[in-house]
Amino acid sequence: MAPKVNLSTSTRERCVTGIEGLDNALDGGIPRGNTILVTGSCGTGKTTLSLEFLVHGALDGETCLFVSVTESSSKLLNNIIPYDFFEESLIKKGKLIFVDMPVVYERLGLDKLEFTLEEVDVLVRAIADIVKEMDVKRLVIDSITSVCYRLRTQEKIRDFILKIGATLSSLGCTSMLVSEISPAEERYSLFGVEEAIADGIIFMGNLERRGDLLRTLQIVKMRGTQHSRTKYVLDLTSAGVLLVPLLKGGSVAGG
Amino acid sequence: MSVTTNVSDKLLTLPESSAVALQIRAEHYFDVIRGILDNFAIKKELDSIYITSTIPSQSIINALQVLEVDMSNIYFVDCISQIMMSMSSKHEHTIYVESPTMLENLMLKVEYLTKRTEERNDIVILDSINSLAIHNNTKILSEFLHLLVNNLRAKKAYTVIFSMEEYRSEDISNMLNIVVDETIIAAGE
Question: I need a surface site. Which of A84, A96, B106, B181 has the fewest CB within 10 A?
Answer without folding.
Answer: A84
